[in-house]
Write a structure and sequence with these properties.
The protein is of the alpha+beta class. The protein is 17% helix and 32% strand. It starts with a strand and ends with a helix.
């Protein structure tokens, strides 16, 4: 698998960013370093890649996390509980939707676009969080897999690595 472009929208500390591996200087470098201050978004870049491909990220995966939850207020004053290991926790504070898009090329040269997205009901900042989604598009044929589990399964086949192996 060859990374082509990562687009991040409203995930953790990153409001909007695009990293294009097909443009200079990254295009010409076999190895590069992700560097920055604490909270700058270094881990968020890696999270975005994992989310786009597999719909999960190591940051949100830890033992016994289903025992814990954190409340988020809804407009009507009721509390919506979101498990601490939910990817919805990565939604940037004060935003109603988030997205991670990874464009990549398989070893046989076929370009794909993997997308992970989460949003709040009616696009309201204090709305309930809807289920996240994963899409996978073959950018040559424009065929899209829009079923989350099927998209994730197909990514594993395309890159030849499971989520655990990728991490």
């Amino acid at each position: 698998m060859k990374l082509l472009k990562v687009t991040i929208h409203n995930i953790a500390s990153i409001e909007d960013a695009t990293i294009d591996f097909t443009q200079k200087p990254l295009r010409d470098e076999p190895l590069f370093l992700i560097d920055g201050n604490t909270g700058a978004g270094k881990s968020t870049i890696l999270d975005a890649i994992c989310l786009a491909l597999f719909g999960q990220t190591p940051r949100m995966s830890f033992p016994d996390s289903e025992k814990y939850s954190t409340g988020m207020k809804r407009q009507n004053g009721d509390e919506q509980l979101i498990p601490v290991n939910s990817n919805a926790q990565l939604l940037r504070r004060g935003k109603s939707e988030a997205k991670a898009i990874l464009e990549f090329e398989t070893t046989d040269g076929i370009p794909y676009k993997a997308t992970w997205a989460v949003a709040r009901v009616r696009n309201k900042i204090n709305g309930a969080v809807k289920a996240d989604e994963n899409l996978l598009e073959n950018m040559q044929t424009h065929q899209t897999i829009d079923k989350k589990t099927e998209a994730r399964r197909r990514v594993t086949e395309l890159i030849g690595l499971s989520y655990e192996q990728f991490c």
